[in-house]
Amino acid sequence: ELSERGAMAGYPAAARTESTHHRLIDFAKTALTKIFLFPYATVCELYCGQVPDVEKFDEALIGHYIGIDVCSSGISQVREAWESQRKSYTSDFFELDPCTVTILSLYLLSP
Predict the structure, then answer these.
(1) Residues 20, 46: one domain?
(2) With a threshold of 0.70, does the pTM exceed it?
(3) CATH of the domain at 49
(4) Phi and psi at residue 64, in whole multiples of 5°?
(5) What is the 3-state secondary structure (H, E, C) of 54-82?
(6) Structural domain for 21, as ranges
(7) 42-79, pLDDT tens digit by residue?
(8) 31 and 54 both lie in a single domain
(9) Is residue 1 included in any domain, yes or no?
(10) What Cα–Cα distance (Å) separates residue 111 from each residue in 18, 23, 92, 94, 106?
């Protein structure tokens, strides 16, 4: 049942908005993955957060994954989760702000 403001009784409007936002992001990532990824491609995910979309990348049969995030704790959690899953492709993780650092120069200079 709808309240005066159009929200369903018992459900906060912010939670529904956030859920809709996450569904939209997931839809966009799925569409972009299916359209642009090809087998053995290198994927660079900016602001990968704490949980990368491993299922999407597994289905696309990527060759290499690069995860970038501004938060060191997020990168640590992603790296640990990634290493525990034994992926068939290689991966690199970087803590940096892609808005302030030239990513290509950092990647080319890494050992």
Answers:
(1) no
(2) no
(3) 3.40.50.150
(4) -155, 140
(5) HHHHHHHCCCEEEEEECCHHHHHHHHHHH
(6) 6-36
(7) 988 888 876 667 788 888 889 998 888 888 877 888 78
(8) no
(9) no
(10) 39, 37, 11, 13, 10
Q: Which residues contact 100 (CB under 8 A, 6 or more apart)?
A: none
> CA 67 to CA 73: how far, in whole Å?
13
**25 and 55 belong to one structural domain:** no
**Tokens 């409007």 map to which residue?**
13
Q: CA–CA separation, 94 vs 50, rounded Å?
A: 13
Domain co-membership, 62 together with 13? no
Nearest Cα residue to 91 out of 79, 102, 103: 79
Answer whether residue 100 is part of any domain: yes
**Count of structural domains within the chain:** 2
C-alpha count within 13 angstroms, C-beta hemisphere, residue 111: 0
pLDDT band of 22, cuts 50, 70, 90 = confident
pLDDT over threshold 50, residue 10: yes
